[in-house]
Amino acid sequence: MSSEIMSLEMNIFCLLLLIRILYQMYINREQNDHWNYFYHTIAWACVYLFMDVIWIMNVKHLLTFNKIQSGIFNSFYFCSLTMLVCSWYIYAQKTFHLTVFEHKKRLVLTFIPLIFFIGSSLVSYWTHGLFIIDQAGNYHRGKLLPFYFLILFAYILYLSIKAGYLSKKAKNYLYQKEYKVIARFSFLPFITALIQMTVDHLLIFNLGLTYSIFIAYNYFQQNLISLDPLTKINNREQLDIYLTTKMKENHQKKDLYLFLLDIDQFKKINDELGHVVGDQIILKITDILKQIAHLHNCFISRYGGDEFIIVCERDKNEEIMPVFNDLQRLFQQSHEGLPDFSVSIGYAKYDESLNSIPKFIEKADRYMYLNKNVKK
Q1: What is the pLDDT of residues 28-51, one digit of tens each?
Q2: Which long-range contacts (CB under 8 A, 24 or more apart) does 236-239 make?
Q3: What pLDDT does 283 receive?
Q4: Inter-axis angle of helices 104-127 and 145-169, to 10 degrees?
Q5: What is the distance between the alpha carbons of residues 150 and 113, in angstroms, rounded to a whole number?
């Protein structure tokens, strides 16, 4: 069996897999930028793989094109690959939380090479930049093709290196996870492309691309499972996983604290004002906890119906009171459009006597109820 036929079968398999993932993302689509940018990346990957299937069929004379048809096809083929890299670049930059898209000059400079090659793809039929089509409709490489692949691979390599660097530098564990996904996604297509260019008849770039997309998609699915449906913050299962890891670590250099928050008289709020208002209050509390997580690099989780948990690590002898004070300050602010509400807060410092997660939480719970009883 020739390498082209094997590549054709592999591409069809990869295409069907990506179409299935694209369909699942469409029916379960989320209203957030990350989901939408990644969705567009997969869509362009499907277009590219479809074009590659057609290209191989043309090489094996399963499909025949005249000169004009071959020119049009190759123009769109190179455009689809460029748009795939472009969409992944946009998704990665958004994930990095950088401001490149807020500066028009930087944005234009960033995309000049990609825009140039999209234009080159469309006019190469006449200019012979990326490809040459002879009178029989056969494809030949153009003089700019090596530079085309070099630039595309440079974008991919840059994203991989940037994501790896940010994952090491980031203090927020959620950002670390996101950056690692970007690094892995970008690295594998780059490596498989290098192998494909150096080893004759080993066409594995599309397999590496598909596997990378599958890894990133799996990360999205794990996030959906690990997040609380209403608040979109960590659920109780993720709390258990995180605490188990942190409680096993050596605490010679850092102290581990756990805050437990409970909404005062939440049942009364639901009974008198309705569950919609109750949900709005829960979402407001979630926004406050996200601010705390950003300010103090904390893990936040919804523990139960009206209970939330914050987990913080601090250097030895570093005060934990700034976290507590910021919590009180944010909750004491007026909350426009919502009825007055309050929360009770308790916290505990981990030590070896707290040899299980329930004991750790129970200690914070006791202090929280002392706080709650003072209000009565």
Answers
A1: 766 566 778 889 999 999 999 999
A2: 236/301, 236/302, 236/303, 236/304, 238/301, 239/299, 239/301, 239/303, 239/309, 239/311
A3: 92
A4: 150
A5: 11
What is the token pair recorded at 297? 């690099």
d(CA 71, CA 69): 5
- CA-to-CA distance for 367 and 376, rounded, in angstroms? 15
In the block, tokens 């209203």 appear at: 31
Predicted pLDDT at 96: 80
Question: According to the model, what pLDDT value does residue 375 have?
Answer: 64
Residues 193, 205 contacting (CB under 8 angstroms):
yes
Whose tokens are 């690959």? That residue is 81
Residue type, 162: K
**CA dist., res. 343 & res. 371, Å (int):** 9
Tokens of 170: 């980031």
Q: What are phi and psi of 253, to 5 degrees?
A: -105, -25
User: Could you tell me the two tokens for 69?
Assistant: 């048809």
Q: What does the alpha-carbon distance between residue 324 and residue 335 come to, in Å, rounded to a whole number?
A: 19
- φ, ψ for residue 352, nearest 5 deg: -65, -20
| Structure tokens, 38 | 């990644």
